[in-house]
């Protein structure tokens, strides 16, 4: 995976987290024996298996600092070690944390693995019991009184005999039993309320022609029932034109909005607020920087406060906001913290953040969880976070989460969420994967498209293209930097982490203050880099696409695409970092001949935004089409090549 949130991949090697918490990668070979022929995880010095064993307990960060502390050796089947370690070492950390013990995974001999437990007697016996519970093989026995089929049965109802006379699990029955169990759990949940909307009489009285005119005038807003084209638009609420029309019954919310000095709702907010306050599911597709966060956040605050069950009696948090990257999750958390409403608390959980601290906050009780899918899945699977009570879930930048392969984590984490929840999805595009998610998690959603569904950049950004050779990029970049005004603020997007790291180091060596943001920097440095840009400590940020979405840096005046992005969608998101909230911005993109595969789509985006289309770009697109035609004539020779699956310049390709 690239810079994005590091994700646990089910097929990945087992990661053993020794007491020093330095992660080492072990490969669980076929017979389940752990070996450490793997590489150390990025940024760690991988040491041999014997290395930290050889150093003995003290050197591994574990001190026998209490004379009652002793140790006990137990053995478990090597094939069960993974259950003790858990995903990314999460289970072993939980066991140590909950039992106040230390666990050392020892050598595997034969089919068994030694495990040494350190701590007080009480801690050792507690952790030993928990390890036994984890590693015992439970047959799939029906409950004592198998209420599923209404009859007490001592035989295993879930076993059946297949056509070969072999006893096998009857998965259909098992799944039906599980579904029934799930339904029983949900039936016990307290009721929820979703409709808080009191339509302002002025809004209700808007004539249909006026509504149509307003929608057309505001980026050509399209509204429809996503999965029911025949639905009558009359059941879709009219847009609100002022903050008061949306929130006059919630004066504290209005006060929070007034503090931000906004003058009027953005188009997506005008249409989304009535829909979400009415408790409907909604898919919001709007350009970057148009206020989507506030569009789903303010109704979420009202939803939390309006539930009949007191907050302290709820089984878990009420609102879940999923975001594709740590930076976007932190960005949303920052936006949430701007709005104080009735003591509502939020927590941001993301990979690379302090897991234990996040568990503490979640355990203490919060109302809103803002999360990246990986860490959410980790905490839900480790039973630190109860997802069953989420009654308002937001999948922000859903298309990006799918691009990054998060669908399995999303589905696993949301598996327990109550079926009557309200669901909001935002996306910049509407690919099949997002549609699939919407069909699974949404009930008769209303889709609000602000602007056309075609990929479109915000019209507040002046888009410039510069054609050059790869080797000339740095020179032109330095020229731009020298030409910057003191109040200019720029993000320089690079195609790779290594480039971002090299460029930022190069600039610093030249005495040019800057920060860098990419996946090879640890989380605290990434947050500091963003903070420095937001606070104005530096005005140059060199980044990879980890910063291409959602990041909201006020008064960002420029975006430089030092390397053209691999996907044209990222081009739209990158330049959308400027020209936000109605301000204007400038995007300067460097293009080399290897970017010719993007020329055609870029021309469409420039034309849609009424931007000047350079003649070289048209020629580039023509040459690319001619090359494709030539290759097809030659029998389709040559396939993917170049960055991002573009076409690589072949010997015969004329430039
Ligand atoms: N009604 C409004 N008037 C003016 N500014 C607003 C309004 N609503 C939100 N903003 C500001 O606009 C900026 C962009 O908002 P936000 O990040 O929600 O946009 P977005 O559509 O989510 O962008 P992206 O697609 O990049 O995530 C934020 O600084 C936010 O505070």
- In terms of DSSP E residues, the strand content is 15-25%
Largest sheet: 8 strands, mixed
Count of DSSP E strands?
A: 23
C-alpha-based Rg, rounded: 28 Å
Terminus-to-terminus distance: 33 Å
CATH superfamily of the largest domain: P-loop containing nucleotide triphosphate hydrolases
**Total domain count:** 4
Keywords: ATP-binding, Helicase, Hydrolase, Nucleotide-binding, RNA-binding
Region (Disordered): 1-85, 630-655
Family: Belongs to the DEAD box helicase family.
Biased composition (Acidic residues): 1-10
Supply the key terms:
655 residues; hydrolase; alpha/beta; binds adenosine-5'-triphosphate; Ribosomal Protein S8, Chain: A, domain 1; Rossmann fold; ATP-binding; RNA helicase activity; single chain; six-stranded parallel sheet; 23 strands; 36% helix
């Amino acid at each position: 995976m690239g810079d994005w949130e590091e994700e646990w991949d089910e097929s990945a090697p087992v990661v053993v987290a020794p007491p020093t918490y330095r992660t080492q990668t072990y490969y669980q070979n076929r017979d389940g024996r752990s070996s450490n022929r793997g590489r150390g995880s990025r940024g760690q010095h991988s040491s041999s298996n014997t290395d930290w064993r050889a150093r003995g307990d003290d050197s591994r960060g574990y001190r026998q600092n209490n004379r009652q502390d002793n140790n006990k050796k137990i053995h478990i089947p090597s094939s069960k070690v993974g259950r003790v370690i858990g995903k990314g070492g999460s289970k072993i950390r939980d066991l140590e944390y909950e039992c106040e013990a230390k666990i050392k995974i020892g050598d595997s001999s034969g089919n068994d693995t030694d495990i040494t437990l350190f701590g007080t007697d009480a801690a050792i016996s507690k952790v030993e019991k928990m390890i036994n519970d984890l590693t015992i093989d439970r047959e799939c026995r029906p409950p004592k009184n198998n209420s599923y089929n209404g009859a007490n049965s001592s035989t295993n109802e879930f076993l059946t005999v297949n056509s070969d006379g072999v006893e096998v699990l009857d998965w259909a029955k098992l799944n039906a039993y599980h579904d029934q169990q799930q339904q029983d759990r949900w039936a016990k949940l307290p009721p929820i309320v979703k409709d808080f909307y009191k339509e302002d009489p002025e809004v209700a009285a808007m004539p249909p022609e006026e509504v149509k005119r307003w929608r057309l005038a505001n980026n050509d807003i399209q509204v429809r029932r996503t999965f029911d084209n025949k639905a009558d638009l009359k059941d879709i609420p009219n847009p609100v034109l002022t903050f008061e029309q949306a929130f006059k019954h919630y004066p504290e919310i209005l006060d929070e909005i007034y503090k931000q000095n906004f003058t009027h709702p953005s188009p997506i907010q005008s249409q989304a607020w009535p829909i979400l306050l009415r408790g409907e599911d909604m898919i919001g597709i709007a350009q970057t920087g148009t206020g989507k966060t506030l569009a789903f956040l303010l109704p979420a605050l009202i939803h939390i406060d309006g539930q009949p069950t007191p907050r302290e009696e709820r089984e878990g948090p009420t609102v879940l906001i999923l975001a594709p990257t740590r930076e976007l999750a932190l960005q949303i958390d920052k936006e949430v913290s701007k709005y104080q409403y009735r003591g509502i608390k939020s927590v941001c959980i993301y990979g690379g953040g302090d897991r234990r601290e996040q568990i503490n906050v979640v355990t203490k009780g919060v109302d809103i969880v803002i999360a990246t899918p990986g860490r959410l899945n980790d905490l839900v699977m480790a039973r630190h976070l109860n997802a069953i009570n989420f009654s308002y879930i937001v999948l922000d930048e859903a298309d990006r989460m799918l691009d990054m392969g998060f669908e399995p984590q999303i589905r696993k984490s949301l598996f327990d969420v109550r079926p009557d929840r309200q669901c909001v999805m935002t996306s910049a595009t509407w690919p099949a994967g997002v549609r699939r998610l919407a069909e699974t998690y949404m009930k008769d959603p209303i889709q609000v498209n602000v602007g056309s569904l075609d990929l479109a950049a915000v019209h507040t950004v002046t888009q410039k293209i510069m054609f050059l050779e790869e080797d000339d990029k740095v020179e032109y970049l330095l020229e731009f930097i020298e030409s910057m005004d003191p109040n200019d603020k720029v993000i320089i997007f690079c195609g790779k982490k290594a480039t971002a790291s090299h460029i930022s180091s190069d600039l610093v060596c030249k005495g040019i203050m800057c920060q860098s943001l990419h996946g090879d920097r640890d989380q605290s440095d990434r947050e500091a880099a963003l903070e420095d840009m937001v606070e104005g400590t530096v005005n140059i940020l060199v980044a990879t696409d980890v910063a291409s979405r959602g990041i909201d840096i006020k008064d960002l005046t420029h975006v430089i695409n030092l390397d053209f992005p691999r996907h044209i969608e990222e081009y739209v998101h990158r330049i959308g970092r400027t020209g936000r909230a109605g301000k204007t911005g400038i995007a300067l993109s460097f293009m080399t001949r290897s970017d010719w595969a993007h020329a055609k789509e870029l021309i469409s985006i420039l034309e849609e935004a009424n931007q000047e289309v350079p003649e070289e770009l048209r020629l580039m697109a023509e040459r690319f089409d001619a090359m494709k035609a030539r290759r097809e004539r030659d029998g389709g020779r040559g396939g993917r090549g170049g960055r991002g699956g573009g076409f690589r310049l072949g010997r015969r390709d004329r430039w």
